[in-house]
């Protein structure tokens, strides 16, 4: 056996044999409101929205959150027949007649937005991509990308700028005007309009990307504001590494000539960027790269906070994920094998908390971190896509969002024997002998909630950490304790499916079992507890890659 392999086995054994971690929470040590930044979701394929499993999943996402859920999707302006495909979608909202006159058709895009609005969800409405009739390079227009192919194959005619900026502005004006007429002024005022996606990368096929993007933004903003002066618009949805692109976009909006109006500056109601991790497959296992995702967040917050004119501007992490390709399954990309099990759950819990921590450090105003995962219709069960559900059955990761949806009130300070924080993870990842056992807590006048996780970058779920939890200054003498859990035995449809023999086509009875296994489960029945002098202590045995929600309610 190679020394490196032996060392790896010894390291994993040490991780599995975990000790105790002490965590203290004081309800009087508040850090500010707990913003539901997790109540944001997104996906590439807009036509899945109104399909069977898409509608089911959207209903579940709407139900898990006490506040309206925002939804972002690509390809809303693409030309086509509405056929759904991986990393593709279309609405055919804009074509031209034989004389080059615009022809508007809102039927498909309306069906998408109607699906959101009837569930009291709200669009993070993406102005993109380029209709075929407006593209400077329309042929070939549609792509037919499949997992395992070169990612650049997706960049066809839709990824080019408009050949006529006046028609581009008029299209956007007509779309927003139509939305106001259909949904009402007050409703559309509550949306966010955004331009494009990752224009610094593959998604905008020009040499001078920043100049072209800013010009497109000027005309897009003019169209949005002409239809609804009170509408909110922003950008640039740059990739995680595109700090200079973000800086130049901000500078343009604040100080440079507006190509559409001739005036100085452009409206900017929020800023958006992306943050992605970088998992690898090594030593026959997945090793996550949360440090990369947090560095992306840190990079952009540092730049945004350097502009005093933008103090408190809303910030949206438009895609906030462990890596970059939701439609790349684990068979073609083995580093994505974390997606079906509890590792995706513990990663999500730990990363959300560290994003909040970085937001505190910079004094910025993150309002949303879009989880870029949805569902893929008519695909193999548990194929390893980055998704919240497979064939209508919820994956473990969806239950993290159910947990967070039960948290509200003032965020509380966490202290104790804690090995990791955002700075430590950015520097070294979670790769030592100790796992990341930590928590996110909040309290309102009638309840306390604590999200607790046991995460490590290495995909190992054996071994247990014992958490000695002390909660102080609970304003009650009697209360009820609820303990929810995601682990190998709870809230885990994937493990149940494997125990069934991994059926390619589950029977109706198996489907019912899987559907139930995908729901959030309790570790124990609710328990009446006594609070002594405002203090309650609890010992929690937390397996590797597991997540718990401790909730205490009182009058």
Automatic annotation (TrEMBL):
GO terms for biological process: carbohydrate metabolic process. Residues 1-22 form the signal peptide. This is Beta-xylosidase. It comes from Chitinophaga silvisoli. The lineage of its organism: Bacteria, Pseudomonadati, Bacteroidota, Chitinophagia, Chitinophagales. SUPFAM superfamilies: (Trans)glycosidases, Glycosyl hydrolase domain. One of its GO terms (molecular function) is hydrolase activity, hydrolyzing O-glycosyl compounds. Keywords: Glycosidase, Hydrolase, Signal. The active site is at 198 (proton donor). Belongs to the glycosyl hydrolase 39 family. Residues 23-517 form the Glycosyl hydrolases family 39 N-terminal catalytic domain.
């Amino acid at each position: 056996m190679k020394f490196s392999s032996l060392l790896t086995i010894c390291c994993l054994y040490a991780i599995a044999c975990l000790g105790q971690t002490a965590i203290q929470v004081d309800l009087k040590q508040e850090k500010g409101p707990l913003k539901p930044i997790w109540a944001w979701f997104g996906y590439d394929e807009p036509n899945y929205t109104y399909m069977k499993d898409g509608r089911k999943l959207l209903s579940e996402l709407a139900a898990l959150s006490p506040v309206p859920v925002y939804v972002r999707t690509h390809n809303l302006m693409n030309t086509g027949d509405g056929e759904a495909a991986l990393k593709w979608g279309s609405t055919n909202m804009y074509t031209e007649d034989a004389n080059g006159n615009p022809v508007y058709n809102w039927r498909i895009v309306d069906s998408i937005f109607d699906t959101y609005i009837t569930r009291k969800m709200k669009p993070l409405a993406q102005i993109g991509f380029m209709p075929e009739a407006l593209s400077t390079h329309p042929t070939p227009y549609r792509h037919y990308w499949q997992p395992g192919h070169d990612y650049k194959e997706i960049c066809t005619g839709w990824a080019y700028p408009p050949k006529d900026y006046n028609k581009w502005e008029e299209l956007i004006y007509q779309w927003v005007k139509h939305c106001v007429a259909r949904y009402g002024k007050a409703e559309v005022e509550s949306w966010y309009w955004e331009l494009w996606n990752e224009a610094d990368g593959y998604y905008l096929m020009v040499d001078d990307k920043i100049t072209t993007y800013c010009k497109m933004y000027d005309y897009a903003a003019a169209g949005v504001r002409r239809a609804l002066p009170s509408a909110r618009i922003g950008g640039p949805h740059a990739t995680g590494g595109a700090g200079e692109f973000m800086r130049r976009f901000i500078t343009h909006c604040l100080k440079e000539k507006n190509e559409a109006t001739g005036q100085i500056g452009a409206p900017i109601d929020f800023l958006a960027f992306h943050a992605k991790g970088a998992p690898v497959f090594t030593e026959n296992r997945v090793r996550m790269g949360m440090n990369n995702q947090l560095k992306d967040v840190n990079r952009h917050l540092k730049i945004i906070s350097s502009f005093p004119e933008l103090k408190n501007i809303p910030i949206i992490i438009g895609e906030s994920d462990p890596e970059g390709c939701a439609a790349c399954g684990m068979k073609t990309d083995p580093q994505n094998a974390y997606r079906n099990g509890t590792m995706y759950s513990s990663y999500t819990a730990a990363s959300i908390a560290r994003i909040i921590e970085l937001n505190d450090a910079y004094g910025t105003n993150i309002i949303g971190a879009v989880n870029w995962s949805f569902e893929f219709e008519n695909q193999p069960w548990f194929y390893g896509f980055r998704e919240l559900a497979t064939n209508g059955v919820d994956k473990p990761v969806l239950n993290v969002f159910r947990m967070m949806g039960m948290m509200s009130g003032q965020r509380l300070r966490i202290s104790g024997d804690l090995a990791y924080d955002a700075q430590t993870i950015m520097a070294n990842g979670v790769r030592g002998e100790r796992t990341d056992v930590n928590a996110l807590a909040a309290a309102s006048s009638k309840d306390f909630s604590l999200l607790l996780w046991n995460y490590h970058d290495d995909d190992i779920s054996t071994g247990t950490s014992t958490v000695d939890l002390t909660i102080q200054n609970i304003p009650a003498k009697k209360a009820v304790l609820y303990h929810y859990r995601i682990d190998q035995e709870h809230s885990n449809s994937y493990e149940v499916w494997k125990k069934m023999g991994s059926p390619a086509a589950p029977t109706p009875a198996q489907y019912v079992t899987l559907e139930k296994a995908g729901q959030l489960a309790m570790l124990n029945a609710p328990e009446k507890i006594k609070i002594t002098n405002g203090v309650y202590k609890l010992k929690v045995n937390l397996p590797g890659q597991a997540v718990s929600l401790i909730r205490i309610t009182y009058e």
